User: Fold this.
Amino acid sequence: MELSGVVHFESCQSVPFGGVLCMVPFLLANDLLSYNSYYSERSKGYYDFDIIIMMVSFMYLCRIKTPEQLKHHSPGELGKLLGLDRVPEAKCLRAILKELTDQEKSAEWNAFLAQEWITGEEPAIYYIDGHVQVYHGYLATLGKKHVSRQRLCLPGMMEFWVNNNDGLPYFFITGQVNEKLQQVIEEQIIPRLNEMVPIKNNLENEDPMSPRYTLVFDREAYSPEFFQSIWNQYHVAVITYRKNVKDVWEEADFVELPVETELGTVTMELCERTVELNGVQLREIRKRSSDGHQTSVITTNHILPTLLIAMYMFSRWAQENFFRYMRQEYDLDRIVQYGVDELDKSIMVVNPEYNNINYKLKKIREKIARRQASLFALKEENTNTGLDQTKKKFSISIENIRTNERTEKSGTVAH
Assistant:
């Protein structure tokens, strides 16, 4: 190798960002340098990949979110953190990162890290949620998705993240077109987790109602039939919110119980019943708020105590907080560079003509609903008025409806 960068540390009274050196043991404990098993070394250059990996890690810890932001910091002062006389400038760093990414080994390395992090965790609870990676480039034409944090529909890609019950990430899966959460869970997330999560020993001695692991997600993937399907096929349980709750349970049925959360012990009013939804038997746990509102949670996990089910469901915000923290502190949504990949041509997508026809049908149904509402109002008005006024009012109202129809057909707006 023709690398000339030699790491050498000397005593120094002042080191900017020196506190990040305290994080080195944690970075190494999480297998930061295990990339060596997947990436080949540089054949020449002043900086080797070890230095670059450590430098990028230090950059994020120092909240230096892009190579361009290095221009605002002294390369010599940052070099002290790495034991070098200087760090590479932005252009050089980007060139070395390109050498690294051109090897296309990130998926294999991520799979190894996820396997290392996921092994041995008990209980096996995994949070799943989608995150929109907004696209601001011009090389690709992407469909628009609703970005809740901005309350806008913007072009982008949907990423489905899998985190542990503390909100720490394992891996994410990028949707190519418009995949739904339910589809991604069944076709990609569960098969991948099945490869990582070891099957319990002595299954014949295990409780048949004990799941292999439990998935926690929001209402987007709600479907009792889907819950039953993944239980029968994969022995995977779910915890989620129930949709369309119309009944109210008696206040006397709720019991105050202490629940351990990340913020400490809180008291919740909880009640549990067994319910049947669409022919599927589920456990339903409800939490009653001080104002009387009842939040319903359903699960196919028949082993977990009521307290733990409530804790895991209401701690799902740990994953939301992870997204927010990563956006604000590490600029999660910023992409180093844009690239264009060919889509898998076997992907099934909705025919645009179908969407157009469906849109027209929707507008016609809305117009019919408005006419029916107007007709109902006329009937009610005619019922409550005298015969001498009915004909005149009815004729005037019918003429108004016809005028509105002609206005809509001509594309004008009546004021």
User: Anything to note?
Assistant: Residues 201-205 have pLDDT under 50 and may be disordered. The chain has eleven helices and twelve strands.
